[in-house]
Amino acid sequence: MKIKAKKSLGQNFLIDRDVLEKIVSITDITNKEILEIGPGSGNLTNFILKKNPKKIYVIEKDDNLSLLLKEKFNDKIEIINDDVLKISEDKISNQKLTVFGNLPYNISTEILSKWIINIGTNFWFENLVLMFQKEVADRIIANYNNSKYGRLSILTNWKLNVKKIIDIKPQSFTPRPKIDSSLLLFTPKKNFFKLKNANNLEMITRIFFSQRRKMLKKPFNQVFHNAKVVAKKFNIDLNLRPQNLEPEMYFKLVKEYEDLRD
Fold first, then answer.
1. Angle 17-24/43-50 helices, nearest 10 degrees?
2. Residue 216 belongs to what domain range?
3. Closest Cα to residue 172, out of 23, 56, 37?
4. I want to staple 181 with a disulfide (CB 3.0 to 4.6 A). Which of 128, 141, 168, 207 is the partner?
5. pLDDT greater than 70 at residue 6
């Protein structure tokens, strides 16, 4: 069965053997349960199988690719022919999963945000080994006081440790994307700041970073009735900009917002 990548699903198939080998060597997956997001034509799946995992689940939205994967791997993998954004990953297995994903570029940040927001206190995964457009990866790993720092950096930093593994050139894919990609490794934080509702962090960072070049005074007044009192409590200069506050400060501000609403 000949498969053509669908632009509408953000498909770019990874074909570089050296990169594929590197991806499956990042973390030990022997006898582990694996979840692969968007396996495409199964190139990475092949390399995962060589490492003798206990079980492989794959989520593939494309019907034709699902049939191809069934043909190619038969009962070596369990195929979930569905949209990753509509799935409850914690219901897939009662084991902690190692997740691999060459994520569709058009929904990669949505997938990562969904996972972080929906995690309670128990993580359903052991590691996430995920590929993003390089510019998105740069935003995920950015530190405060950096122009790339924003909502995605703060949200990720809340519950996950993240490390950049490698940058990957367009020629490693077919069809070739126009941009570089980056591979990131995420591991759960043992302790993270407790908030009542993860959506409040999403909402507050959205308000602050929707006008990232403006001073903090404006978003503070949008979020808090007593903006000056809150700023004084946390010793925040309202003439600074959103990118000047470290992630921990955003977590404290969300908690303050939640406490004031109780």
1. 50
2. 198-261
3. 23
4. 168
5. no
